[in-house]
Amino acid sequence: MIKWDGHSHTKFCKHGHPDELERYLEQAVELGFGRYSVTEHPPLPERLIDDERLMAELAMDFAEMPAYFDYVREYKKRYEGRLDIAIGLEFDYLHENYAFTERIAEPWADVLEDAVMSVHYLPGRGGLRCIDYKPDDFRVNLLDYYGSMEKVVDEYFDHVEQAIETAVRLPGRKRIGHIGLIEKFRQALPPVDEAQIRHRLEKALPLLKRTGVGVDVNTAGLRVATCGKPYVPEWFIRECVAAGVECVYGSDSHKPEQVGFGWDYFEQAMRG
Fold first, then answer.
1. Which of 196, 236, 242, 246 has the most CB atoms lying inside 10 A of its own CB?
2. 69/112 Cα distance (integer angstroms)
3. Backbone phi, then psi, for 167, in 5-degree steps?
């Protein structure tokens, strides 16, 4: 099994770190990684959510896309023979707006090697709301809107299932991003029923198998104080492997020192 970090960000991420990609890549080489996927946030529709300040921090602008691809391609050449760098994007699942996703992907279809499809937004108070912004924002704009954590969780996994179906249409290797992101604020909000999470993950497994979409085994939850665990449980990784669903470790690094974070968890889970 190649040591592969399949989910990472760059200076093009407006909520990330200004360090050059080289620092991330050198960390990956030092830790013995053989493949490294760069999966930056592509543009979002204008006024997707009604918080202008937050919108400005979420994703690249369309005008930045050529520079991003040129940037990663340059490092791909520079590290040839030392590290297999895959050019990718972390697409947002945009409910009933695949036309926008297609507008992003189509011009770069020949370049894209990795496509992570993530659910970051749900319908809520006043329109779409970001599920991983702040606990108080979640409480006011999602929990109060749906009335219970159970209903929010079900809405989230409904969108995850639709995202998996949508990801099939993207170029390159396809994975569903941090499938358990809905638990990011689990220690700051009313408890999530783990039996419900298990049921919804088990329900998603045949869909993953049928579509050939893989799983981003995202460990970023371990470094989030209100979460404290990976976004993909060990039992689910084992069931995915048994079903032939590809599982790819993802550090979701937004800083160079986060590359490789939580690899031990992934390695242990894959050993079964």
1. 236
2. 9
3. -60, -30
Amino acid letter, residue 118: S
CB 90 within 8 A of CB 38: no
User: Tell me, what's the pLDDT at 132?
Assistant: 97
- Which residues, 6+ apart, have CB-to-CB distance to 23 below 8 Å? 256
Beta carbons of 187 and 227 less than 8 angstroms apart: yes
Helix 21-30 and helix 65-78, axial crossing angle in degrees, nearest 10: 40
At 172-226, the pLDDT tens digits run 999 999 999 999 999 999 999 999 999 999 999 999 999 999 999 999 999 999 9
Stated pTM of the model? 0.97
Q: What is the DSSP letter of 78?
A: H
For residue 233, what are the contacts with CB-CB under 8 A and spacing of at least 6?
180, 197, 201
H helix or E strand, kind and range, residue 122: strand 121-124
Question: Where do the domains of the chain lie, and which CATH numbers do they carry?
Answer: 4-120+149-271 (3.20.20.140)
Over the stretch 56-95, which tens digit does the pLDDT of each residue have? Answer: 999 999 999 999 999 999 999 999 999 999 999 999 999 9
Task: Spell out the residues 6+ positions from residue 49 whose beta carbon is closer than 8 angstroms to its own.
Answer: 55, 121, 127, 128, 129, 130
Burial of 239 (0-12, 13-18, 19+ CB in 10 A): middle
Tokens of 263: 């690899």
- Spatial separation of the C-alpha atoms in residues 25 and 10, rounded to whole Å: 11
* Tokens encoding 131: 């599920």
Residue 129 has pLDDT above 80, yes or no: yes
